[in-house]
Amino acid sequence: MAGTGLAPLRDRPDVLLRVEELTVEFPVGRHEVVHAVSGISFDVAEGETLGIVGESGCGKSTVARSIIRLNEIRGGKVVFEGTDLVKLKGEALRRQRPNLQMIFQDPISSLNPRRKVRDVISEGVRVWGGGKGAWSQGRIDELMHAVGVDPRFGDRRPHQFSGGQCQRIGIARALAMDPKVLICDEPVSALDVSVQAQVLNLLEDMKKRYGLTLLFISHDLAVVKNVSDRIIVMYLGKACEIGSADELYEHPHHPYTRALLASIPEPAPTVDVSEGEISGELPSPINPPKGCRFNTRCPHADGICLEVEPQMEAVGEDHFIACHHPVAVSISV
Amino acid sequence: MAEPLLSVKDLCVRFPTERGVVQAVNGVSFDLEQGATLGIVGESGSGKSVTAKTLMNLLPRSAEVDGSVVFDGRDVRALAKSHENHFWGVQMTMVFQDPMTSLNPVKRCGEQIAETLRYHLGHKKKQAIAEAVELLGQVGVPEPAKRVRQYPHELSGGLRQRVVIAMALACQPRLLIADEPTTAVDVTVQKLLLDLLDDLRRDRGMSMILITHDLGVARGRCDEVAVMYAGRIVERAGTETLFTDSRHPYTDALLRSIPRIDQPSHTRLDPIPGRPPDMTGLLPRCAYAPRCRYAQADCLTAIPELGGIVGLHSFACFHPANTERGEAALTANLDAGETAAGLRIHPIVEGAH
Question: Whole-model pTM?
Answer without folding.
Answer: 0.89
